[in-house]
Each structure stands twice: as structure tokens, then as C-alpha cells.
Amino acid sequence: MSAAPDGPRRPATRVQEAALKRIGALLVCALLAAALPGRAQAQTVRIGYWSSGISLGFGAVLEAGQFMEKQGLTPEYVKFPDVNAPTKAMAAGAIDFAIAASAGTSLSVTANGLPLSIVLATQVADLDFVVPEDSPIRTMADLKGKKIGTSPAGSGTAAIAAAILEGNHGLKPADYQAVPGNDSRLAQFLVQKDIDAAALRTVTLALLPDVKMRRLGTFREEWKRLTRQDAPPVLGVGLMRKAWMAQNPDGPAKVVAAMRKAFEYGKADKPGVAKILMASANLNATDAAAYAALWDGIYTVSLEPADIASLKREFEVFKAVGAVQGSLPEGALVPGPYEQSKAIP
């Protein structure tokens, strides 16, 4: 016996309508929940910096002041024990932005075609060539055949020092022995007479008032002589991953705005900087104050036309001494985020 044909459908009851609405609402919530993680991730920026040298001071202030958070970003800070590590991590896609990548290495990797962009000049090479006070070495030319301490090969400091020694004083790498190390270690080597001279940051010298040293020359004056320009050498740059920039069109300007505000804070509130350094860098009050006092001279957050010209000149100087190779692409220096950041209150 065949089944009876279906009759006309009954209208949905109020209970059924309410249930359907609840199901619809749940589906909307589920879709939003699925979308939110991706949206939050788009505003996350992984920031790396060297946990020593002058990178530490700016990084500590940037973190403590929550300047990235104030721009609506979710930062994930990664500290590295090696000066060249942030650039390597950037090349491997492990971080999105390095607040002070070595200028020499950054110029090199962009020339080699890695998908990275220089969006800021962030550190000035404020260093001195020094010797122990009782050293017989009197001039830069006397460094021939000597042991000279500097940052590890690949760092901006090492590249600038090599360019100065060769360009101004005719000392090629084979004419002296470069001894790599961080500033505190190099200062110790000097005291122990294990090396003859060193290129040390003014911050380091300010933190070692009891160590008697004599200055042979400064990076600023030597660079001015080498380049015949007034702009000081750029030691560190803000390096950003192109993929992150493409995925977050408004993100780069926010990052730069946060950097600018952190820089301005440091210029305006030296006691505040010192307090942060005491808490995060384990400095005593005297050392923290000495470090903070140098803020204006060691940091910068800029990519004006003059900065771009200076970095291009720096590339040519590095190339002349073999520190970099190839040609610097037009897209290596990207001022857009810096210019856009000026409109962010």
C-alpha cells in the first residue's frame, strides 16, 4: 500500500521561529569567533632587539611605556643576546620589525634581495676610538699592527670602524687585528692590556668613569672627514618585513608613530628613562642617569631625505671597503611609513 502524499506544510510555530533565530545567532557568533583571531593576529607585531649596547635602552623604554599598545598594536618583544641576531631572525621570518638592526647588515641583506625594508634610521654611531691613558699610541695612524677591539663582524660598528681606518688612515683589515666583542668585554680587554685600542660607545664610557682612557678620535668627526658631509653615521635602522607590511597596510605607520613617541618621551623625561633603566637593565641610579643623559645624541627616529642620502652614502663607503656588495635597490629605503606617521596624533 503506497504512502499517502504529503499534505500542505504547516506554518512554523513561535517556538520554532525562536529556535531558528537562536541557531542563526549562534552561527553569526561562530563566524565572528573564527574571524577575530585572524583580525587580532593582523595587528600583532613581533619586535626584536639586542639586549645589550644602546639597543637595550630604547627597547626598555618602548616596552615600559607601552607605546606600541597605545597605537592599537599587540607587540611581542623578542630580545637577542647577539648584535646581528635581530637581522638574522628577520631574514628567517621570526620577527616582523627590528628596532635597531645593524645598518651595515641591513644594507647588505636588502642589496642581496631579501624581502626587507629599511623604514627608519634609529641609532647614531656615537663612539670613540680609545686607548688606555698610559698607552704609547698617540694617533689613529699608530694603530697599524695593533689589536683593535670592535663589535663583531657584520655589525654597523665594525663596518664603520673599518671604513674609517681604511678611508682616513690607509689601514686595511690586514694592517691590524680586529678583536670582536661587546663593549663591556672590550673595556675589560683594554684594562687588562689584552688589546691596544677599542671603538667604544659613549654610553659605555659614561658608565666607566673610573677606567682611565684617552680618546684618539670620534666616529662623528672621522665620518665627517670621510664623507665630507655633516650627517653622522647611522649605526642602527628600523628594519621591517615586507610581508608584514603588505598584510598590515596601516601597521607600519603605527609602528613608526610608536617609535617616534618613545623617542620624544626619552628626550623630554630623562629621570623617567633612568627609572626604567634601573628596573629593566639592572643599572644603579648613577649609571642610569648617565645613560639617560646621552639619549638625544645616540638615538634618532627619522627617515627624512637627508637620512636617505646619508644611508646611500654609507652603502657606497661600506662597498668601497668590501663590507657590502652589489647595488642598493631603490625600494630598500621606504619613507612611506615615516611620512604617514606624522599624521598620527
From TrEMBL:
The UniProt entry, under Pfam families, shows:
NMT1
List this protein's GO terms for biological process: alkanesulfonate transmembrane transport
**Keywords, ordered alphabetically:** Signal
Domain (SsuA/THI5-like) spans 67-265
Subcellular location(s) per record: Periplasm
Q: Name one GO cellular component term.
A: periplasmic space
Q: Which family does it belong to?
A: Belongs to the bacterial solute-binding protein SsuA/TauA family.
Q: What is this protein called?
A: SsuA/THI5-like domain-containing protein
